[in-house]
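Continuing the batch. This is chain 6 of the set; chains 1 through 5 are on the previous pages. Same settings as before, nothing changed between runs. Recording input and output for traceability.
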Amino acid sequence: MAERNYLSIGQVVNLLRGAYPDLSNSKIRFLEDEGLITPHRTPKGYRQYSKEDVDRLEVILHLQKTRYMPLNVIKQRLVGLLSDVPLKTEPKETKQKLHPIETIPDMLGVEISFIRSLAENDLIRIIKSPQNRELVDGRDFPIIRYCSELSRFHIEPRNLRQYVSSANRESSMFEQVLVSMLGMDTSDDERDAKLERAFKKLHDLTEGVHTALLKNRVFESLNAVVEDADIDALDEEIARSESTKAKSEEASVPAVAAKDESLVHPSNVVAPSHSLSANTGK
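Output for chain 6:
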């Protein structure tokens, strides 16, 4: 079975030309040059378009045709950190089911080799059945989707091992907190709902800390030169302020000293002269 059903650029044009008669190979290449779509490439450099790529292209063409939007506005609408289109939410029955690895390409739009790479880097597990079939847990689907989108930014599974280590460390902390919060709940439904709410709250808080720390580190690195300049300017400003303050204090010291001296030693009264004394005696 083929790992993935990709379309060539010509096939994409033929597929969409009915709705968009002016679509051509060169227009699709132009949209790629503008950063609006990012097809996969074969080792020989041929473009390969997944279902997600075609869906994205349809959105772009629709906005151009019906909303008359310029490409820069469309790009702003589509830009996202992880995904250019919303990630699909798997139904409950899919999440709680094991799926043969051969079905994953059609379900998630990724190659089997990519699934194996995720497993090799401990991001997901491939489970072996008694008949030695390879199975993928439906609960791992969100991870597969996120990692697939990250690969568009040239972030490969091997680059994500740090998050595996982080999740392993944090899971112990989460487990301890959640166990104490659940208390003596006996109802499975009540327990699951409470667990879900508590986990979400903990996750939101810890994710907030992580995001803030990561953002600070990245922006500190990217703005290092600017920040150095700001620090130098701040040093100069503080030095000027301290110098002015020191001069002000030095100028006030003699005046204060003179005042203190006058309080300790009052001005001497002028003694009467001998001639005055003599006249007084007369």
